[in-house]
Write a structure and sequence with these properties.
Layout lengths: L3 E4 L10 H8 L3 E3 L10 H14 L4 E6 L1 H13 L4 E7 L28 E6 L9 H9 L2 E5 L15 H17 L1
Parallel strand pairs: 1-2, 1-3, 3-4, 4-5, 5-6
Helix pairs in contact: 2-3
Length: 182
Amino acid sequence: MVPILILPGYGNSGALHWQTIWEKKLPSVSRIDFRNWTAPVAREWCDLLHAELESREQPCVLVAHSLACLVVAQHIEEYGGSGIAGAFLVAPPDPRAAAFPKEIAGFGKLPKTKFPMETIVVSSTDDPYSAAGFGAWCAAAWGTSHHSLEKAGHINADSGFGDWADGLVRLNQFVQALEVKR
């Protein structure tokens, strides 16, 4: 199986978050430590992702939530897709949204580079951290697939997406399709 790298967003993903639950369920999964979870700086997170990908022996699938989606986009814009087999990006936030935390630095410029690997963006019609249609905008800008969930909030534990069984099915299908193409 292709290794999976979990990339939590702002504040990390707690015990009831689908990323943490999937990390325990799936084989070949690890989680990046962005270290500064409560006052993230784009440059630092992008550099940590780059170092993590450079240290790996084989490409991995990135499973990013929230702010980490923007880190992936920034990384691809700066470094390309080396080390990334595919990306599963959930609930990308709009740094221009009123609810975007003020303590987050350096995420104002939205990357528009087309992704060189298979990617799916999953968004919600009522995410408090992005306007309706922002997920579709990201998918179009990045040249990726898009799946919109109706009234799913920020697609996290607080929105009722603890285990998120449907998301896990979608991820498994995504990874299997990548493995067939390899």
